[in-house]
Specification:
Helix content: 25-40%
Radius of gyration: 16 Å
Strand content: 15-25%
Number of helices: 8
Largest sheet: 7 strands, mixed
Number of strands: 7
Structural class: alpha/beta
Order of helices and strands: HHEHEHEEHHHEHEE
């Protein structure tokens, strides 16, 4: 899995200014790769808030047999998402334009992953120069940063087959709140993964069998 994760990080993605892939996304990629082994050929995966497609295309690079839907709302990001799909995974990954807060891609799947906006209203006022240039659509997660997590833990449950996983990238201070939302919705095997510095980076849970 380490080899696959390294290849995923080096994918030559094209990104618009202000929609760059952050290094913290590598942690969720590595977590996903370690969970893919049980899935049968022709599994269906969905990447919500896909941006330029970093996670969707990383999944495609290690599971060329899977069908992957990459959902994104931003017109600007969709241009780059479609270019990256054409260059790296044509015919395997499909871009879908939708507001994931109101409608998910149709059908059921084995895995849903999302790196949603999660910055709080207070933190929006104190962003570093490296992040401040990014569009608010890609950053702001509601006043407490949990708007997307609340909605997606509710809506994604019924789109997962029994045994399927929902996995999020999360903010540094959301290591307790997001897992609790997953438990409240009925997810099992809820977890939170940290980086080497002990900072929470991703969380997820499994729809019970």
């Amino acid at each position: 899995m380490r080899v696959i994760a390294g290849e995923a990080r080096s994918l030559p993605l094209k990104t618009p200014q202000g929609l760059d892939t952050r290094p913290t996304t590598d942690r969720i990629k590595e977590t996903l790769f370690n969970m893919l082994q049980p899935y049968l050929p022709c599994s269906v995966f969905i990447d919500l808030c896909s941006g330029s497609g970093a996670i969707a295309l990383a999944l495609a690079s290690c599971r060329p047999d899977a069908r992957i839907l990459a959902a994104e709302l931003s017109d600007e990001a969709l241009v780059y998402l479609r270019r990256n799909i054409t260059a790296l995974a044509p015919g395997q990954v499909e871009a879908v334009q939708t507001d994931v807060l109101t409608r998910l891609p149709d059908g059921v799947c084995d895995l849903i992953v999302s790196n949603p906006p999660y910055i709080t209203g207070a933190d929006m006022q104190t962003l570093s120069p490296q992040v401040r240039h990014e569009p608010e659509l890609a950053l702001y997660g509601g006043e407490d940063g949990l708007r997307f997590y609340r909605q997606l833990t509710r809506s994604c449950y019924d789109h997962l087959r029994p045994g399927g996983w929902l996995i999020f990238e999360i903010g540094y201070d959301q290591g307790e709140s997001v897992p609790e939302l997953l438990r409240q919705r009925g997810f099992a095997e809820v977890f939170c993964q940290t980086d080497l510095a002990g900072v929470p980076r991703c969380a997820g849970g499994r729809r019970p069998l």
